[in-house]
């Protein structure tokens, strides 16, 4: 939903349009919350770690032996960890939503 005359949007994110990257009404400035700032810092630290660790490593898992650059292994593990983290968040939201429906 767009405000008339200001060009800003409302309704994205949390109630009142004050989500992680919402625009302040009429100012055109983006307000970042602590989750976004923490995520950006974490990504920056991950990039620095990957840039400093470029040697090859051998990963032994079950009967596989893979030789990968350490930066690529780190990136793959970070992406897999993020997917698992998001999966737990979806599961938690689903449980809470079901509990609210049952409470009605």
Describe the structure.
- The protein is mainly α and 104 residues long.
- The protein has a domain at 32-103.
- The chain is built from 2 helices and 2 strands, in the order H-E-E-H.
- It has helices at residues 34-52, 70-103; strands at 56-61, 64-69.
- The protein has a two-stranded antiparallel sheet.
- A hairpin with a 2-residue loop joins strand 1 and strand 2 (64-69).
- Helix 1 packs antiparallel against helix 2.
- The longest helix is centred in the last third of the chain and has 34 residues, at 70-103.
- The chain is flat.
- The two termini are 30 Å apart.
Looking at this protein, list some descriptive labels.
104 residues; mainly alpha; 2 strands; 51% helix
